[in-house]
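Page 42, continued from yesterday. The earlier attempt failed because a stray header line got pasted into the input along with the sequence. Redoing it now with the clean sequence only.
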Amino acid sequence: MGGRSDAVRRHRGPPLRDAPSVGILDIAFHRASLATPRGSTKPERDRRRAELKVVRAGATVVRHLRLEADRFRKEPLSPFETTLVARRFGDGTLDRSLLRVRRAEERVRGLQRETERAVRRLHGPELLGEAVRAYYGRLSSFVREIDPDLARLRDIRDFLAQRPSVDPTRPTLVVAGFPNVGKSSLVARLSSARPKVADYPFTTLAVALGHADVGFDRLQVLDTPGVLGRARHANPAEAEAEAAVERAATVVLFLLDPSESCGYPLAEQEALLARWHAERPELPIVEVETKADLARGNGGRLGVSVRTGEGLDELGERIRALIAPDVRLPPLEEAVEEGADGGADGVVDLPELRAPPAAPPRRRSGRTAPPPRARGRRPPTR
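This time it went through. Structure tokens are written below.
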């Protein structure tokens, strides 16, 4: 009755070495084999041992199934994460797998209660051993049936662990465009992110997150993989970029390469920009031409160059105006004076953000306070 179940040993399909059910069942049956019941007679100890094996194996399986699903039950995915998972694994895949795991938990608990009642009515080690073996077999089949779902939950968990955690309550700038137009280089100049930069397309294969200060707000900056504009034939990297634009962006910074050194005609880049304008008319999109030191377009767009620094200051002002339009930074002289007056490390302290000055302590005089009046007694009249 100890060790791996007969149902798992007789498996004739693909190797189960990496199947999630193997690890779960091995742990469950090992814990069940360590049952050491107490009893005044041997028949009593045999029955209690069988009961303990049933309870321990079932409880261990249920606990591990819950652990597999808790990542998604306790911390619901953000809209951005939900879209990422749907684009990579299919719509509804996560919900279906979670539903099957929950149903398996219910079946295991029901089987455990049923077997416990049966074991209490049995006598003799042979009958008890047969009941426990049958229980192990059915328990194994329940867990093996959801092996694909457990494996999928692990894949989704690992996939999300490799992606940045985007706070939906903070403003987010999504930098997008065709491959090799200079997105990663610009993100490295605008934020704390340090993406990989290379002179070949699809260097960025997943979204990367950095941060930047905009006034008194913390701006999230997302570097995205290159998009070729193939809405129905996008590869996984392009799907991530589309998901970032659709679900995470407060403002989109769309980069175009008028020099076409990226390897794609400017007309194709502008076609993708026009499609996004049409599909998301409510989303602010800032159009920027990169590599201004090599070429300039005829569209009157802002040109920037990471190599020379041209246009970066103006670009920062445009982003700040869209992200935090109500922020009014103090003049430079006021900021310097605030730092000189004792502000910590020269940090600007706006008047409306300062705490009210504390009232000065009251000076005590040499007089002694009059004794308190007794309750119910009036002062004598003259």
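Notes: The chain has twelve helices and six strands.
Reminder to self: strip header lines before submitting.
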